[in-house]
Amino acid sequence: MSKYELGIVDTRNILKTIQEHYDYDFRNYALTFFKRRLEYIIKKYNLKSADHLIKEIINNESFFQLFLKEICVENTEMFRDPSLWRYLMNNFLTPIIQKSTSYKIWFPEVSSGEELYSLVILLAELNLLEHVEIHASSISEIRMNKVKQGVFDSSKMEINEANFKRVFRNKDLNDYCTIKNGEGYINPPLLENIKFFRQNAIFGQYPRKVKLIMWRNQMLYYNQILKERMLKTMNSCLVAGGHLIIGLNEKIDYWNSNSDFILVEENNSVYRKKL
Amino acid sequence: MYQAVIIGGSAGSFKVITSILSALPKNYPVPLLLNLHRLKHVRSGFVEALALKSNIPVVEPYDKDSIKPATAYLAPSNYHMYIELNKKIALSTEEAINHSRPSIDLSFITAAQTYHRNLVGIILSGANKDGAWGLKKIKDEGGTAIVQDPKECEISTMPQAALNTTEVNYVYSKDQIINFLLKIKQ
To answer: Tens of pLDDT along B87-128?
Structure first.
């Protein structure tokens, strides 16, 4: 487990370099997370030092794209926390979407795609896919292009299938995806109508009048300041009564946050924007 | 003196942990950080089972929770649990380390960087090598490294791996571990 250890000063220099050269401001990411991620990148790409990393970031745009891909933490698996997906299936999606004229869903950070794939599979099972408008964004062009093609890491298939069975007892995940040359692919029709767009690190652009935001385990990597700022952003793009779903061990607890959000399903971290 | 105790274990550690939790008083002077491998999907029930006979609250922390004395923090299923320098919990869904998420090594290493010599690290019964590296880091930072006696463990792979990696301070039976923990004063 030995690895390159980065100092705080080096970390800050890298943050500054990125901010000066690109439209990405990571200064309010959780510092220890960011430092850890930088160390991982330095090791993975055989860089010698922080200076070497800085040089690559400045001079090599295609390296910077790889850098963004690595900063962006992958989703762990499809149907992570099966109880949430069962809740969405049995208690949440059907009544709410059928009542709605246009139901807009946003994945602010689509990452490696598993959360998005899980939702479109669930919607297909419920015959609701035609009734929704899905927007998906990512800070990483590379990740986003993979998700557009429906690619996923086939080594996660075992856990994907185990989770899937916990949601849909008698169905088969293989009806929705195929494994080709060692890579997993979601069936293309499931992703046909999704609108993808690139995001900078602090969400400079976002869709309006969204009814559901799926944003699980993303705030883990922010500091308190960015966490609060982003939650306010999420709040402003939701319609009144719209929902925000965050990770099971995340919570919304900034000062006066209960005038913005109400926790409606504690076991699954489902919040609603106040009317 | 000691400011925190961190414990790692997997198969065979559950009973040891419940014995420890039932022995500690409700005003225990330091926090207990627990990282126990378990089935990923057994989300509910585990923390309740641990809390049943415990005198101190057992919680699965939320991200950015502050670490307080007289509380046991159990690494939530399918998250890594880091200990931050400002004595808060940081959770993460980053890659599994040696097939483990939570990784005992990651919790131990970051706790060592936060508490240095004021930390006790304990490796209990378990079926893989996770935690061995982390315990070494605790020792290197001046903390106290304890391993449950492999002869007493249901599965000795984990304590044995720790012993192979680190010159630990003590190899203790379950009862000796409890006695040691009871002597901790602030």
So the answer is: 999 999 999 998 899 999 999 999 999 999 999 999 999 999
Specify the length of chain B in residues.
186
Tell me, yes or no, if B37 is annotated catalytic.
Answer: yes
pTM metric for this prediction: 0.95
- CA distance to partner chain B, nearest, from residue A249 (Å): 5
* DSSP code for A23: S
Count of residues for chain A? 275
**B78 and chain A in contact, CB less than 8 A:** yes
Instruction: Flag whether residue A5 sits within 8 Å of chain B, measured between CB atoms.
Output: no
* Domain edges within chain A: 8-71, 82-273
**A45–chain B nearest CA distance, Å:** 17
Domain that holds residue B161: 4-182
Nearest-by-Cβ selection for A1 from B62, B94, B133: B133
Residues of chain B positioned with their CB less than 8 A from the CB of A69: none
- Checking phi first, is residue A165 left (phi over 0); if not, alpha (psi -120 to 50) or beta? alpha
Preceding amide of B150 cis, omega within 30:
no
> If you search the block for the tokens 């949440």, which residue do you land on?
A92
CATH no. of A82-273: 3.40.50.150
Report the CATH number at residue B100. 3.40.50.180
What is the rounded distance in angstroms from the CA atom of residue B3 to the CA atom of residue A153? 42
From CA A146, how far away is CA A185, in angstroms rounded? Answer: 10
User: B42-71 pLDDT, tens per residue?
Assistant: 666 889 999 999 999 999 999 999 999 999
Separation CA A103–CA A95 (nearest Å): 12
Choosing among B94, B103, B113, which should be mutated to test the A contact, i.e. which has the most A CBs within 10 A?
B94
ipTM greater than 0.85, yes or no?
yes
For chain B, say whether A33 makes contact (Cβ under 8 Å). yes
- What does the alpha-carbon distance between residue A112 and residue A39 come to, in Å, rounded to a whole number? 21
Q: Is A4 an interface residue toward B (CB < 8 Å)?
A: no
> Catalytic annotation on B99?
no
